[in-house]
Amino acid sequence: MALLGNLAVVLLFAWVVRALLGTREVTWPRLIVAVLIGSIVGATVAFVLAVDITSPLDEQIADFETVGAELRVLALPFQIVAAMLAVVGIELLAARPSQRRGLRTMGWIRGVRRRTGMMLRGLRVARILVRHGLAPALGLKRGEVPSRDPGELARRARLALEDAGGMFVKLGQLLATRPDLLPPEAVAELGQLHAAARPLSREEAERAIAAEIGRPLQEVFDEIDWTPLGSASIAQVHTATLHDGRRVVIKVRRPGLLQAVERDLGIAVAFARLAERRTDWGATYEVGAIAEDFASALRTELDLRVEARHAAEMGTAAARRPGVRTPAIVEEYTTERLLVMDQLVGSPLSATPAAALDPAEALRLADELCTSQVEAMLRGERFHGDPHPGNVLLLEDGTLGLIDFGVTGRLDAFERSSVFQMLLAIRLGEPSLLYESLVAVGAIPPTRNPDEIERELARFMAAYLGPGLPSTDALTDLMRLTTRLGFRLPPQTSTMFRALATLAGTLEQLSPAYPLIDRVAKLGGEELRERTSPSSVGELVQREWAQLGPLVRRAPRHLDRIATLVEHGGLSARVRLFSDAGDVAVIERLLNRAILAALSLGLGVIAVAMLAIEAGPVLAGTDLRLLEVLGWAGLFGATVLLLRVLLEVLRPPPRDRLRG
Fold first, then answer.
1. Do 350 and 492 belong together in one domain?
2. Which of 219, 306, 362, 561 is the most interior residue, by most CB within 10 Å?
3. Do residue 436 and residue 523 come from a single domain?
4. Which regions of the chain are under pLDDT 50?
5. What is the pLDDT of residue 39?
6. Cα end-to-end span (Å), the chain
7. Do both 477 and 503 map to the same domain?
8. Which H/E stretch holds residue 222?
9. Judging by beta carbons within 10 Å of its beta carbon (0-12, 13-18, 19+), is residue 549 exposed, middle or buried?
10. Which domain holds residue 127?
């Protein structure tokens, strides 16, 4: 019975605390834990106040027996306040979406451990950046960067990324594929980055592969070469043979990678946001958003099913060209952490001397590669986003093979139309048309003056473009200019231009002076010729008139109606503020919090003033003054109100209220 009585007291106490805080989202298990903590803390505070703890122990025990009943009454308000503080503390440590229920006692501990690890890792990376003299460039401290030479800065950045290791090397490798963001010296320097990842042992690799396949490897593979074909920061590659004699490549993701990836990506994004806030170059290039894009691309690369799907789509697009092949995917054994595909036997173009190929044969291969990729771009099919010579193999049968589909792209119909318009503007040397095409496909910062941007584009055309179609270097410089002007092009459009610039270098290695842009114009087919041919102006006007004609014909009637309303004073406007229920809910929450905070502060000030007054009536049979009792009661009420506001601020609003 005593146990049931104590349980009833605890539940009643918890109900009182919950009612005072005015929230039903606090779960009962957390509430009871908070009440137990508050009971112990409140009783301890009351004991310290009521009993002289400096006296001998036997006197303390005698005092405790004398004031025992009074001590319980004195402890009650302290216990309630301590319990409410415990509720706020637990909710702060274990903050979670409102729809998730139940007590997860270890969740907040893991969160604290994760944040602690991220902080320690961030401090190590910051020390590395300081050691290489890059702290001022990222806004970590004031001062000048030791060198303003792009090549020297890129060298320092490469060394810092290599020292940091992990995903920072991968981020540097991704930056090396962005000639639109970095000068050529920086691209060349960062292109030397290589992930010094420890190869997985045979036992580790075998265990990881078997876990994904779900059965003994002997049942699937006739042979596996456990010497890695390649070992990178994300995955390791082995060659193998299936029971039917099919030679395949196994790409297995490193075990336990996600936590380290998220930690490094979070640190990289945090540094980028810091540079965007504290440095001019960071604000100009919006490096925070760029870092977010890189982080998103890396997270996508972790799912090997995405790479498998992209490889299959590229295989479909390249099937029209007999000279270009992509590996077929063994879908039966492909998972999020495992990719199995055909092995293409050959040597990378980067390891193939230019003199080893007959010039006519090299030109034919260059035509096949260029046609397969450019046709895919123009038709809205999947194309390779990083076709550098290391990702293009010269196969034993004399054809070319594409590998590594971590970076690919695919243009939608709107992006293809805008790209054609860009090429047309460059072809005609019209900066206004180029500006309109960039605005149509990308976002422009509102602070930039359109006339200033057009003048920059006109200077670019005068400096870089001559008669005929532009060079690939001009396209790269144009992308770099748009980035400096603040344009945010869609990721797929940027990927296409980067792929063209990379493809140009690969084609140059196959066949020097290969006319890539002329080939793009030729493969553009009827659409590009219609846009660039003067004879098509009439057809273009007809197409545009078909869309704008009905609007133009109705415009006079609409203008006449508006003028009539203005003449007779019948034109009026009505604006309904807060017509959306979600907006009203937000304003209500803010006002409620402000009112409660004001009441709490006001009541607290009045209570303290009452406690300071040494006058007033005395309660019968006691030494307590009425103002003193009212002051303590007011102070208690102010504390309750303040804790209610604090709890409401700390805890996220329910999703249904967010939807409003």
1. yes
2. 362
3. yes
4. 1-3, 6, 96-105, 655-660
5. 77
6. 48
7. yes
8. strand 221-231
9. exposed
10. 111-196+260-298
What pLDDT score was predicted for residue 542? 57
HSE-up of 638 (CA within 13 Å, CB side)? 17
**What pLDDT, on the 0 to 100 scale, is given for residue 62?**
59
**What pLDDT shows up at residue 657?**
43
What's residue 3's pLDDT?
A: 45
pLDDT of residue 206: 93
Total domains, the chain: 5
Cα angle 298-300-302, degrees, rounded to a multiple of 5? 75
Q: What does the pLDDT read at residue 20?
A: 63
Q: Is residue 646 part of a domain?
A: yes
Residue 562 lies in a domain: yes
- Residues 77 and 121 grouped into a single domain: no
Task: Examine the fold and report which residue of 60, 77, 105 is the final residue of a domain before the chain moves on.
Answer: 105
Q: Give the pLDDT of residue 176.
A: 79
Containing H/E element for 402?
strand 400-402
Domain boundary among 548, 572, 596: 572
- When computed from its CA atoms, the radius of gyration of the chain, rounded to whole angstroms, is 35
β-strand 346-348 against 408-409: which pairing, if any?
unpaired
- C-alpha span between 144 and 282 (Å, rounded): 15
- List, in sequence order, every residue forming a beta bridge with 409; answer none if it has no partner: 383
Find all residues with CB under 8 Å of 369, minimum gap 6, and list them. 323, 324, 387, 392, 400, 503, 506, 507, 510
Instruction: For residue 234, tell me if it sits in a domain.
Output: no
Res 248: pLDDT: 95
Q: Is residue 331 part of a domain?
A: no
Residues 646, 560 share a domain: no
Three-state secondary structure call for residue 23: coil
Judgement on whether residues 549 and 512 belong to the same structural domain of the protein: no
Are residues 608 and 641 part of one domain? yes
pLDDT value, residue 658:
39
* DSSP secondary structure letters along 173-205: HHHTT-TTTS-HHHHHHHTT----PPPPPHHHH
Tokens of 262: 């998220």
Instruction: Supply 646's token pair.
Output: 């604090």
Q: Are residues 528 and 591 in the same domain?
A: no
What is the crossing angle of helices 626-650 and 2-21, to 10°?
80
Q: What is the pLDDT of residue 478?
A: 77
